[in-house]
Amino acid sequence: MIYRTLFNLVFKRMDPEAAHHLVARGIECFGAIPVFRRLVQGAVAPYGGHSGVKVFGRTVPAPFGLAAGFDKNARAVVGLTHLGFGFVEVGTVTALAQPGNDQPRLWRELEINSLRNRMGFNNDGAQVVARRLSRLRRTKAGRAAVIGVNIGKSKVTAVTDAATDYATSASLLAPYADYLVVNVSSPNTPGLRDLQAVQALEPILQATRHAANIATARAGRPDVPILVKIAPDLSLTDIDSVTDLVKRLGLAGVVAVNTTINHDLGPGGLSGPPELPRGLQVVRRVRQRLGKDFVIIGAGGITTAADAQAYLDAGATLVQGYTGFIYQGPMWAGRVNLPLLRGEAEATAHPHQFPEVGAFDDE
Fold first, then answer.
1. Residue 133 is assigned to a structural domain of this protein
2. Of residues 114, 171, 185, 186, which has the active-site annotation?
3. CATH number at residue 70
4. Other beta carbons less than 10 A from residue 134's beta carbon
5. Is residue 186 among the annotated active site residues?
6. Is 0.90 surpassed by the pTM of this model?
């Protein structure tokens, strides 16, 4: 109730992007104070006594993490983990630093507790983020954090040079990541989603893996797991094709799903509860196609522990969210994770019903 009052009186009156930067900076500062973050973690994320999830060669302390998009530049990882997220996926990071699209580019859809964005991968660039992660990994808190790094194509890079662009980011970032996500599914970089076509995607994945393996070998680390993030708007046939490629190449798995453009609310991709039914459908489809030996990170529309449990029941290994953090506040991750860890979460029996946002092409 305290956060809801603060949201209504302060954040709702602010520009969404300005509010985001204010909150992210506060979490970054909070993470830099060891005594304070330990006290807060004891209140919001008392995960002691739970075994967590074994994945990526590590023990993830809790199955619900923060999706890419909130901490684009790896500034607030420690603070976020101490607010109860089991893992943090930073990015999207591009090989070249870029400002992103013109503002305004972030909108709240208050009636459906959602966000709409056309940010355009604004970030400091792979070289700067790699240096930041290197410093972070030299600290005790940084080594303890489970960190995924989401990489995308630089806007100025031609589609024909996409593989080299992704490989550049992978070579810089892989030594500091517990897993890498190849993002070819954001709707806000022109031509990016076209790279989900198998003939375009395969050379990108091959180049990314090759560059990442060389970089981790030089650093004396094992190969970093590589996942592909897919859009909810793909037809099921195309989802099958991408899934089959991941399996054929022996990659680690899939992140499903990104934001959707299947709406009539304005420009940009929509995230939040309206994505839940499609996200569950895609995760179930991908799990059936991949089998049990691959990682699936389920994302899209998670608000409650029941929503997260529905993804786990559909076949997800881990789950992640972002939009709910904006609407639910700093205790949100703990409220989702604790019932999951205790086995007390019952999956959503009937996915939330929302205004029709268009039909998916599933043929």
1. yes
2. 186
3. 3.20.20.70
4. 15
5. yes
6. yes
